[in-house]
Every structure is written in structure tokens, then in C-alpha cells.
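Co-fold these.
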Amino acid sequence: MHRRDLLKLGAATLATGLTPALATTAPEPSSANVEQWGLFEIALPGPSTGNPYQEVSLTASFTLEHRTVQVTGFYDGEGTYRIRFMPDALGHWTYTTASSAPQLANKTGAFTCTAPTTPGNHGPVIVRHEFHFQHADGTPYFPFGTTTYAYFFTSDDNARASIEGLKPHFNKTRACVLPKPLGGDKEKQILPFPRANGTNDLTRFNPAYFQLLEKRLLELQRANIQADVILFHPYDAWGYKSMPAEADDFYLRYAIARLSAFRNVWWSIANEYDLVKSKTMSDWDRFFRITAAEDPYSHLRSIHHSGPIYDNTKPWVTHASLQRYDFENTAERRLAWRKPIIYDEMQYEGDIDRRWGNLSGEEMLRRFWLAIVNGAYGSHGEVFFSATGEASSADAGQLRGDSPSRIAFLHALVEKLTTTGLNAPESPYYLNAGTPGQLYLYYFDYHRPSRYDFPLPTTANFRATLIDPWNMTTTPVPGTHSGKSRITLPNKPYQAIVFEKISDNHNPHTEAAKPEVLD
Amino acid sequence: MHRRDLLKLGAATLATGLTPALATTAPEPSSANVEQWGLFEIALPGPSTGNPYQEVSLTASFTLEHRTVQVTGFYDGEGTYRIRFMPDALGHWTYTTASSAPQLANKTGAFTCTAPTTPGNHGPVIVRHEFHFQHADGTPYFPFGTTTYAYFFTSDDNARASIEGLKPHFNKTRACVLPKPLGGDKEKQILPFPRANGTNDLTRFNPAYFQLLEKRLLELQRANIQADVILFHPYDAWGYKSMPAEADDFYLRYAIARLSAFRNVWWSIANEYDLVKSKTMSDWDRFFRITAAEDPYSHLRSIHHSGPIYDNTKPWVTHASLQRYDFENTAERRLAWRKPIIYDEMQYEGDIDRRWGNLSGEEMLRRFWLAIVNGAYGSHGEVFFSATGEASSADAGQLRGDSPSRIAFLHALVEKLTTTGLNAPESPYYLNAGTPGQLYLYYFDYHRPSRYDFPLPTTANFRATLIDPWNMTTTPVPGTHSGKSRITLPNKPYQAIVFEKISDNHNPHTEAAKPEVLD
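Predicted complex below.
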């Protein structure tokens, strides 16, 4: 194998981005080291005649000791084929290619998977503790995401502004693979399929489109932001939402072959799936099944709705991605689905005329807290009229709202309080979540009691801290607390308090808390 | 008939209150004038031995031309029997009594019913325009009420403080006939039945209890406050919530005989009926039927719940009295019941630890507006920890919250805008209520669009006024508006705007509003 056939996308090359030019600067395969959950890429020259996207098959088998992982390659245009692989275990991996084209078949090589050194590389996010998430290396991960639908195909300026706003505030964003019309001439946008005179060629792809997407995906990865990659959506100007099933599947397999080796990918099968009127439920099921089969790494899989919620009990769904803000139904949904729940659209902070697009920062923050104390998660989004009077619909660009810093404050608080996630008791009198006997995070929402007798267990001593979610202050309550504990509260709405266990109470003399009354 | 046998409670005597002493100062029956919807009372001496409450029957037939109205009298203690009558039509009325006691039978007399002169006497409140109310003389009446459960049996000081707070802010209050424990020695409270050594005599009444109640009822009447008289409730310390059915009915008939001639009475069969565990649905139905049969004036009848809502389609229910704040279900309820809806408990403004008792003034006001723009009504209540740390549960006394003046502002606005009540369109994009083609009152709740294209009809011209419900300001929008009308809005939550028709638009050149999108 020639040195130019191999591209290693480890820490060093990630830092400079994924560009075709980089493919020629990779080290010798024999000395290749790839960090765990980094991206190992093989580039091979191959047939460029006919339709290489459809007529040439290419796979590779990667082997570590007794394990073999088969991955699918893809045609990247201009006679270049690529195979990408994300190693999940340390050690010496070897590979062999297989192809319908003799030129691409039986290529072999090896690399060593080393411990990660890239800051923030904790591996992909997976489901843990039933209703929560975690990185593959065990690092806690709590999704506090936002929404940038057009991020993958927006301008470099917008993308840069997006990253600047996202990096300090969010660790996940939702973004579409297929384009949305951006307001200008829709025929001048960069598009994923060749298009001439208003007609799509759905049998081929435009590699430049996907290369741009991958550049953006790496920008997110460097900013420690998970990409909730939306595979289908209804916001279409070119006919992509109503392609024939063969084209849907062809596109889906190609996207998965290109993207699944990026560790920060989550699969969102669709945004507002039920607004894509040309497809049926069996289409959505099939997309899930193709995604589960084609992705060797089992990235997270969900589907986002507008009206009817997809049946999240189906086995290929890893977590629920909801467009709702009826948090009072969270417990019922957790019981029904036994999976994590992210309220991925709780309406948007903004000022536009549509009723989903004009929350105050305070109301957006309130919904984040309600999600958290119900044992779930929320996602942010914003949409403001631009200076020219047109709305920017949660696409990409500079953040203008007031909630992101307060959401980041809540995120930091959750990270400080727990490694496994917060769970809510059954029918709490006032909303709270935590770990029984250890931790109780209360959020009072519109309630503003001037005092409350908190029903703490008598078996432990707790410290208490008042939290003002909007002003981002924490105020320790003097003393320690055990059993029924009366605390004077600020007597204003939207306040919180947390009780953290500091020691066991082996000889409880304190008054036991009575069961709370369900007046 | 002796002059002392007759008491006329017209404007002059009402002004000094209803006390036994007044019974001797009434004018000659032959010259008696009673204003329409005033209270005409006959007092007769009769048997005081045995149990006059149970052993003596007493009725009177009041006749005006072709009409005869039969009413039931009651024993008021110390050998005095009374018959009360509220004349609803002008003219010369005559009456004849009937009784099992010869001493009370066949008494006759007459009076002239004259046009009302007492300020605020517009007759009882009745249902009109299907979902709304009106006084009997056609004067519009929109319920903006509060809650003073213990008002009828509270101290004079508390009652005076209540009236001072209620009079400028509210035109209705909910108050219990049967007592609630007030926090002191429950055996020292004034009680409706004789009680000795902790044992009730449920075969007799304590007239002084009802006389106090009637004094309070007249205080409300003079303040133009409708009394939503609660006949049964679960907040009991003496066994009144679990009396035998015969005692329930005996009490109910007695209360109706005493109170129904007061024009400001509404019947609330119960508060939180479903928390009175000793009674069944057929008991509540029977109470309704007794009330409908015994009250000659058909005062409004409702029943208030805690959990399950009573079947408000039953024919004896005049309007729904709900303990809910799910205003989004109002349209469905209006369609189902075809009756006015009052959200009589939407939680309380206050600062106590129970979750129903610590709304901010802002949240209480918000719920009033939500009730109104859904075509319904709300009721206020407040409960604060007192200086001594004990809660005053919406009983009676000084108002301490921030919402009453803002509720009165809304009340004045509604009175200015409509005579027949506000109705909401089917599935509005933003909440609004009014009269199609004439009036649109929008309330944006948590939405804060910086502008909106209001879909006004093109057939009329409207003036627009921005309303800040909390700061109680109204700001006219320059110009007139017709058809699709873009208005710049304050871009903060909880704002309102009203469009009032000022003229027809016979040659509409304005752009027709498109049907609103249900994004």
C-alpha cells in the first residue's frame, strides 16, 4: 500500500481538519498509531467510470485478536474510495479489504490503537443507568444541547459564530444532513445529489457536500459537542423528502458509511418525521433497521416527531427525542419506554411571530429545569427576527438569547451533583430529582412558599444550598439537616434548593418526616 | 295582623342590617312598599313548645295577578316564625299563610312592589348568552370573585376587613354555611346546631348562627358582592360532614327557607364534594333536586370538586364551578356542558407550604386572563402565613396579595368591552376571545413575539390598544386596522392587545388575512 492510500485521523490531523489535501500527509501504515475512538481512514484509488456509487462494492474487515468488525467503504469522487474505522479497543488491529473491483480488493494493513490523548476524547456517548447517558470510557455525559439545523451546510462565518456560541454553553446540537433552503436561490446552495435544470440525479452523490459536512462535524468534535445528525426532515425545496424508497436507502447507507466512524455522531432518523407525508411508519422502521445494521458502532438512535410520538419501545430506539413540554408526563413515559428522554424541542427562545418561536429566556430556562427534575433532559433552540426582519430558524450563527449561560449553569450544577443522572421520586409533592438517601434537587417552578418542611431521611445528615437559577447564585443554608427540616425559602418563583448528604446519621434523634400529603 | 308581625327589608332597613330589633319598626302592611328583588318578611308569633323546627309547618302563597308563588317559612327561635319573599315583578302582591299551627295559619296581607332604588340592586344573577351571566334586570354581570370560606361566622373585625378588601376588587365570594374550625377551641365557635358535651342535636338549629350569617350576607349585598353560598363541605370538626341523610335534608331545607329571598345568593351545593367521603353521588344529586324544588327563585346552582368533576350536564346544574387550571380544556368543556364555566379554584396567591397556596400575584393574574380568553371566568383566593406563622386559608380578613387590583383592572376592561361576554374562536393560533367581527381580546401568555400579523376581518375597521395586565396600562396603537394587520408588540411575556371595531369597511382594499397556520 502506498503511503498516500492511508489517512490517519488521530489527534494531530483532527486539529487541522479533514480535507482532501491531508490524505497525502499520513504516516507509514506500519508505524500508524490511532487513538481509541479516533478515526482511521484508508483511501484507495479505484474505478471512476460508470457509476462507482452503485456499481462498486467495498468493505473491510478489521481484526483485533478474536474480534472482527466489518465496515463499508464509500466512493468519494475523482477515483478515490475510502474506508473509515473507529477502533474501540486498544491493541494491534489488522485489516483486509473486499471489493467487486479487483483494484480495491485484498488490501491489507495494520495499526495500533493507543490510549486517547486528545482532550475531550472519552469515546462515543452511550445509554447508561437506564435513563441516562455516559461516554464509552465511563465519563459522565449529560446532554445539554441546542439546535442548529443548517450548521452542516451553512457559511463558514455562520459556522464559526455557531461554534463560538455553542462551545461554552452546550455539549450537543441537532443538525440536518440533507439541506434546508437557506433563503437565497435554492439552486445555488451546495447539494448532496447532482442536480441539473431542476432535476435530481438520485443515483450519485456530490462528495463536496459530504466533505463540507464532515469538516463541520469535526469542528463540533473539537468543541466537545455531540452531533445529533438528522437523516431525514420535511424542510425541503428539492424533492429530497419524497425520494423513492431505493434512493432513501441508497442515501442512508452512504451517509452511514461516511459518518459512523466519527465518535460524536448520534443518529436522529428524522426531524418531525410525521410531517414528511410521503413516508409511512414502515419506512421509518426500515430506516432504523438499516441504521442499526450498517453502523458498526451502534451510535445512539432516536426519531423526532411533531405530532404523534413514535413508538419508543421499539428495540432499535435508544432514547426518546421529543417535541413536547408536558413534563408532567415524564414519569409515565420513563415507565413505558425504559429509556432516556430528551425534550429536544421545548419551543424556542426568540421573538418571532410563530407561537413556537418566542419564549423568553426565563421560560426556556424554566423548561430545562422542569425536564431535569422530572428525570429527563432538554434542548435549547432560538429564533429571532434578524435585523432585516426575517427569522433565523434555529439554523446556525450567533446566539442572541439570554438563556444559554443559565443553561450552562444548570449543566455545571448537574455535573457537580451526580455521575449517574438524576431520577425523580414517584409523585413528589414538590418536583425534585436526585438519588434517594443521597441527593435531592428541588425546583419550585411557579410555587413560592416562604418556608417548607423538607422530608429528608433521618438516616443521614445533609447540607442545603439555595439556588437562584436565573441569577446563577448558590447560597449555603447554615447548619446540617436530617429528617423533617424546615427551611426558610426566598418566597419568589422559579427557585431551587439542593440537599447533599454529608454523613450518615447513626443515632437519629430528629423527627422522622411524615409521608407527604397529596392535598 | 299587628304591625310588629311584619318586617319589610327594603332599601332603608337593609342599610341598617337585619336584626331582630328591626322587626318592630316596620310600617303598616297596607302602606308597605318593597322594591323589586328586595326582601319582604313576615314575622309571626307561634308555638314555642316541643320542637317547632320539626313539628310546625308554615308556608305562604304570594299572588300577583295570575301568578302565585309559594314559599316556606321557618322558626327563628323564641316563639317567632318568619316568612321571607323576594318579589320579582312590580305591582300589588297579596299573601295568605298556611300552617299546621292555627296561630300561624290564614294570615293575609299585601304590599306593593316598586321599582328598585337601592344602588346596585339589579336583581339576582342568572345565566345568559349560554356561557355567561347577567342580572335579572339585564345589567351585565361578569363574575370576578374571591374566596372567604369563613366569612359568615368569622369575627366582626375580620368581616369588616374582608368587606374592605373585597368591595373595590371583587363582585362575588365563596363562603360556607356550615362552620369550619377557626383554630381556637372548636367548642367555643358559634355553631348552627345545639351542642352539649360534644354531642350535636341535629333536630334543631341555633337561630343566632343563622342571624349572624344573614347579617354578613347583607353586608355583602350592600357591597354589591354575590354570595356563592356553600351548603356542604369537608372541613369539619363537629360531625356536620357526616350527618344522617334526614339531618342533611332538614338542614338544607332550613337554610334555603332562610336564605333564598336574598337576591345575592348563589347555591354551591358543596366545596370539594368528593372529599366528603360519607356521601354518595345520589346524595349530591338529591341536594341539587331539593335546592331546585325549595328555592322559589331558582338562584344559580353549582357544585365544586377536588378531583373528579361532577357531571355538569345534569339539568339542575346552572354552571360549572371548577377546581382546575387546565384552561386549554375550556372549549371542550363548553361544548360538553353548554353552560358558563367558572374556574373557582385556580390555586391561591400566597406564601404557605402547601402547593396550592403559594402563587405569586403575577401567576394568579395570568390564570385570570387565561380563563377570560378561553371564554370562562376565574376566582381569586389567597392564603398567607400570618405573623404568628399559621396560615389563614382563604377564610376572611384583610387581603395581602398583589393580584386583586390587577384582577379589578381586567374586570373593568371586560365590562368596558362587552355586555354579553367574551367567547373564544375554535383553535385560535394565539389565545383570544371576543365577538367575531367586532371585538378581539388577545392574551399572549408566555409568548413574546416582537410583532404579529393579526388576522382581522377586512369588512371592518378596528382600533387597537396594547394592554399591560400587570402594570395596568393601556396604550393606543396609532391608526386604524383592517384585514391582515402587522402590529409591533412589546416583546415581553404576559401582554395583551384588544381590537375594537370602529366602523364598517365597505370597500376593503386591505389584504385579506389568510387562515392561520397551525404550525
